[in-house]
Amino acid sequence: MQSTRKAVMDEEVALVAADGTVLGSVPRSRMRAENLLHAASATLLRNVAGDLYVHQRSPLKDWCPSAHDAACGGVVRYGEDPVENAPRELAEELGVEGAVLEPLGTRLYQDDTVRVLEYVFEARWDGPIRFADGEIVAGEWLSLEALGALLRDPSWAFVPDTRNLLTGLARDGVRDYARLLS
Hints:
Blueprint: H1 2-9, E1 12-16, E2 22-27, H2 28-34, E3 38-46, E4 52-57, E5 68-69, E6 71-72, H3 82-94, E7 101-110, E8 115-124, E9 136-142, H4 144-151, H5 160-171
Parallel strand pairs: 3-8
Antiparallel strand pairs: 1-2, 3-6, 4-5, 4-9, 7-8
């Protein structure tokens, strides 16, 4: 596991401007250390009933270890297209392959710990879930209402960029995400 973790920390990450223009690359470890603006995919996985898959991140993650999240994804490697990154990350994290990903746009998130331009997708899936690469340790399907109640609790450990992403989708009336506010 240690050599895999080192390889991930040293992968070349695409640095971007707020409009998505690729400006160059740096090793992932430098991107984290200097909180540089980078691109990432964020795929929201929903089942036919409309529930959203919420998972708990591994304690070994380099950002927000052990926090909950509702987006599968990851940093876009230098030279990689976010449209290629999203299904790769979904397969790596949840073992989901062959789901159709629909783009929901981009979202910029910035705080003292992360600066990211997220390429947001939604996918429907009723097949099996398996934690393929060890980045996720647990998960469950939640209704948007149940997730919304959890998100209103500031003490619930949930990654801030996805909290912001979901709140934005709800406020903007994207699909049925307004149900998160009910």
